[in-house]
Design a protein that fits this description.
Structural class: mainly alpha
Order of helices and strands: EEHHHEEHHH
Helix content: 25-40%
Number of helices: 6
Strand order of the largest sheet: 1-2
Radius of gyration: 25 Å
Distance between the termini: 62 Å
Number of strands: 4
């Protein structure tokens, strides 16, 4: 077994066991080389810390009907069907600051959500749903996004 000697830390000057690069464990972890990836604290955008929190808020205040087809929706909390009822008008990747914006999320039937996300498909052209309100909202939100951004 190797015996360890206490040495003086180059950063704080304390006499302790050296962890790496002449630094104690505390000082090493403060450096950029020692920073471990940790979960960042989520900034509450629009008053919501997560999509789940936003979705539940919208669900409780809705009439439980699709905003496009008018079909009554059933609440299947925790199942994929439940989460597919919430469509982001502006994509989360391209517009990250609008991810938790309640105006950017519509409650729609899962079939409508699928059609909207796969908008170039033949299914959308042949469908019974008119998605024009979603596209109008998309243009309005884009203008608002870039107005807020610049």
């Amino acid at each position: 077994m190797i015996t360890r000697k206490k040495k003086q830390c180059k950063s704080c000057g304390r006499t302790t066991y050296i962890f790496a690069r002449g630094l104690c464990k505390y000082c090493y972890n403060k450096t950029s080389k020692g920073i471990k990836k940790t979960k960042k604290k989520v900034k509450k955008a629009y008053g919501f810390a997560s999509e789940k929190e936003l979705f539940l808020y919208l669900w409780e205040r809705s009439d439980k009907k699709c905003m496009i087809s008018g079909k009554t929706l059933k609440h299947f909390e925790g199942t994929p069907k439940f989460w597919h009822m919430f469509a982001h008008i502006l994509g989360k990747g391209a517009y990250p600051s609008y991810r938790l914006n309640p105006d950017n999320v519509w409650i729609v039937h899962p079939d409508v959500h699928d059609l909207y996300d796969n908008r170039g498909s033949d299914k959308q052209k042949k469908s019974e749903y008119d998605l024009s309100p979603m596209y109008k909202a998309k243009e309005r939100l884009k203008k608002q996004y870039y107005k807020d951004f610049y």
